[in-house]
Amino acid sequence: MNEQSPRIIYMGTPGFAVGPLQKLLESACNVVAVITAPDRRAGRGKKITHSEVKSYVLRQEKPIPILQPENLKDPVFLEKLRALKPDLQVVVAFRMLPELVWSVPSMGTFNLHASLLPQYRGAAPINHVLMNGEKETGVTTFFIDEKIDTGKILLQKRTAIGDDETAGELHDRLMELGAKLVLETVLQLYSAQLEAKSQDQYLDSASGLNPAPKIFKENCRIDWNLPGKKLFNLIRGLSPYPGAYTMLERETGDALQCKIFQATFEELSHQDVPGSISTDGKRSLKVSVNDGWIQIHSIQQEGKRKMEIKDFLAGFSFVNGVYRFS
Known about the structure:
Elements: E1 8-12, H1 18-26, E2 31-35, E3 40-42, E4 47-49, H2 52-58, E5 66-67, H3 75-83, E6 88-92, H4 99-102, E7 109-113, H5 125-131, E8 136-143, E9 153-160, H6 167-190, H7 228-237, E10 244-250, E11 255-267, E12 277-279, E13 285-289, E14 292-301, E15 306-308, H8 309-315, E16 323-325
């Protein structure tokens, strides 16, 4: 492409949005500006930090204008946006756009979503497909409209989900898949080869819609009374972030919060109470559930770093007292 190609404004903030932007720039797409989150103070020193997208843009040899509006309805920002005269806006992991913004480009505004829409609309599709034990997912590009994740679909790419795949691993694969899909969508829109289709055409009437709402801390606590397979999917679906957590309780009543990042499930009949711990004190830590055992492989004790289970057991003794997870 060249400067006569569609004038593209790219909107994104986290690492997931870096890959698609990189793909567009490597393909010489005419990205005339990038819109990302405002700088924030973070860490103990309260240093100014940039979004991952801004950090990437600042490393480019050719400067690209960066806009960081606090308020997307701010008249000053809207004036700057219109002055850029975009033909197309590409949105990846940004915020909900008001119509004043998404209606600006002549060719429209499309978004990349990390699921096979209309399934898993919402803020956390990668987590929810794993928590629900899905075997397949993918990425979708669609035109933005008045509602959340409901606009007409442009393109989709599908991928199988690994049996033990975590949210972090799936995130990285979908970022690569999504980057290719964003570029393909731009090229096909530019050549007028693409017809947007209603999401109703992608809906299987035999099954309902699975949502993917934002995940809060209360969604992350492990209930050891649930079936083992469901707990296994919860743990991998929240790994590494925000992390499934449980309380390690001693008979004296004190408790420590622990996050579990990797585990396996073994289906087995037993008489132990859910949450009971079995360990050799060296390399193995198992937790009972009604239909078997959850074997923990990676854990993080509150206030400590993430550890492999052998390292955790080397520094934590279960000898002095009776412990259980709750």
